[in-house]
Amino acid sequence: MIKTKKLKFYIRTFGCQMNVYDSRLVSESLKLSGFEEVNTPEEADVILSNTCSVRQKAEERGVKFLRDYKKQGKITVMLGCVAQQHRRDQVLPGVDLAFGTRSYILLPQYIMGYLNGNAPENRILGEDFGLLELTDTPLKRRATWIQEYVNIMQGCDNFCSYCIVPFTRGREISRPSEHILKELINLQKQGVVEVTLLGQNVNSYFDGKRQFYQLLDLLDKETEFLRIRFTTSHPRDLTYKVLRVIADSTRITDWIHLPLQAGSTRILKKMRRGYTKEEYIEIANMIREVLPEATITTDIMVGFPGETDEDFEDTLDVVRKVKFDHAFTFIYSPRPGTRAAKLKDDTSNEVKGKRLRILIEEVNRIAHIQRTRMISKFYDFLVEGESRKDKSLSAGRNRGFIKGVILGNYPPGTYLIGKVIDVKGLAPIVQPVKIIDKFEIYNELTLSV
Ligand code: 5AD
Ligand code: SF4
Question: What's the pTM value of the predicted model, to 2 decimals?
Answer without folding.
Answer: 0.93
